Amino acid sequence: MASSEKRYVIVGASAAGMAAAEAIRAIDKRGSGSITVFSDEPDPPYFRPLIPFLISGKKSAADMALVGQGPYQGVGIEVRLNSRVERIDSLAQTVEIPGGERVGYDKLLIATGSRSYIPPEIEGTDAEGVFALRTLADARAVAGRVESTHHAVMLGGGMLNLKASFALLERGLKVTMVVQSPQVLSQLMEPGDATLIRNALNNAGLKIETGASASRILSNDNGVNGVLLDDGRMIACEMVCIGKGVRPNVAFAGLDDIRIDRGVVVDSFTACSAYNVYAAGLQCLQCLRSRRCRRNL
Questions:
Q1: Of all residues in the chain, what percent carry a pLDDT higher than 90?
Q2: Which of 6, 50, 168, 271 has the most CB atoms less than 10 A away?
Q3: Domain ranges of the chain
Q4: Rounded to an integer, what distance in angstroms lies between the CA atom of residue 87 and that of residue 60?
């Protein structure tokens, strides 16, 4: 294959991955290089911060599509849905998806983002009615549970859980947020500001329990029926949403020569320690002082 006909492979249809696809196509105006984007989700690329609006009914999945950010399925750009990359072979310069299909690349970008963190110390997280809101599929599942839910408990006071809380309040549910820290959004603002936010949330109908955490999620044949707190109290509910942070989504085989340290380590050019492999997005850990992983674009 001629050098002008490069094969670009992007793992992850995230905002970073799709922005990269647009940028590559903008530079390669002749369309001589192929761009293949692998996504493990069934939905076309979408704007993730909007997914709580699917729960409230204010927006549809089509309203969240990453349109206006480039013709992602234009000439020479292929987005392959339901295609989880299981292995990266940086020596052979191939990626492997289920079924054993291997796709070669000249340049590879890892843009898989993050996955929800489920604290292992909380028992019962596999019960029906327990959600960790991260994808459109998660939002659909939450919305599908609303009709059989009177009370929802949100574990964690991060921004996405706050948005989900308001979406559920708009659907007429009673919502309680359980936060281990003294205030919601305690890592994002000063205590005084957090207090103002908490008062506003209380006035909006959101009940907040601070200084507490869940030890067990209770369930019966119908799924979730309560949350047991570490202080012995039990909150009856039919839905639990866990928003306790995220972890880098780098669950691939064959990463022996790609440096991982709380994420994919990259330099200031987004290059990894493996040749012709780059990374962008939430799964990255930038190491500006490291020259060992720097590669020319």
A1: 48
A2: 168
A3: 7-115+247-286, 118-244
A4: 33
Q: Kind of pairing, strands 239-242 and 151-155? A: parallel
Provide CATH code, domain 7-115+247-286. Answer: 3.50.50.60
Cα(269)–Cα(278) distance, integer angstroms:
8
Q: Tell me: the pLDDT tens digits for 120-137?
A: 999 999 999 999 999 999
Superfamily assignment of 118-244 in CATH?
FAD/NAD(P)-binding domain (3.50.50.60)
How far is residue 187's CA from residue 164's CA, in Å, rounded to a whole number?
Answer: 19
DSSP single-letter state for residue 62:
G
| 7-115+247-286 and 118-244, same CATH topology | yes
Contacts of 163 (CB under 8 A, 6+ apart): 49, 52
Give the length of the chain: 297
Residue-wise pLDDT tens digits, 154-168? 999 878 888 999 999
